[in-house]
Amino acid sequence: MSMQKNVESFIGCDSQYDEAGIVLFGAPFDSTTSYRPGSRFGPSAVRHESFGIETYSPYQDADLTDSCCKVFDEGDLELPFGDPLPVVNSIMDNVRTIVSDNKIPFMVGGEHLVTLGAVNALYEKYPDMHVVQFDAHADLRDDYLGTKLSHACVMRRCHDFLGDMRIHQFCIRSGEREEFLFAKSHTHMHKFTTEGIEDLGKALAVSNAPVYLTIDLDCLDSSVLPGTGTPEAGGISFMALYEAVIGLIGSGARIVGVDVNELSPMLDTSGASTALTCKLIREILIALSINR
Ligand SMILES: [Mn+2]
Asked: What is the CATH number of the domain that holds 61?
């Protein structure tokens, strides 16, 4: 019997890098958060609290420990605080490596700006990529208080290189009027709910386009997930998000990368927001493995 070092991984994600189809990693950065910081603690909280949920999904009748589920937990990136540019570049480097090894990157934020690094790295390999965003906020500002690298601008920065009509936004219910005007001619914006996700999944599956999935947890109603930096009332339920996301993955759309961001665990001392996030991550990891 050989002993192993006691290093914590997300529950059921104990595969080695070489055999893994999915690489989970944390991006603990929250320096551009406009309201309440704390999402830097998201990845470590999720990893630790994941031992409070089961590896088995009764929804999908599958288990994170099934042979089709091979997930390597890389741990958290070591990111500097304050300056977002080296953070985005560091995430880009990491995702570039994962993608060049034909694995799916699964990033746990951190604030939503971390998405920019992952999307940019994947775009290098997949210039025809689409991004599906679940979020309360449009995140389409060209700048926020003079800075272009802010979580309030992340989808606008992605649009800079993705181009028009590549970003599909769901559950959006907050932003400046200019962002909603911008969306009319540059993105596909679905306000308030996930309505339209089924048709989108079918279209993306038919076209076989690469798809990046970014889930800002504040798309959920703030009664469902209060542990987030910029809570916004009027959001969706956990099951609505579950059905939209797992439905999209199951539609045959070619998912090439995923992130779940903006969990700020200390803002919900009940722990329920973190537990919800763990469950969502489990379900997505299983769905990606089944549909790979
Ligand atoms: Mn966002």
From this structure: 3.40.800.10
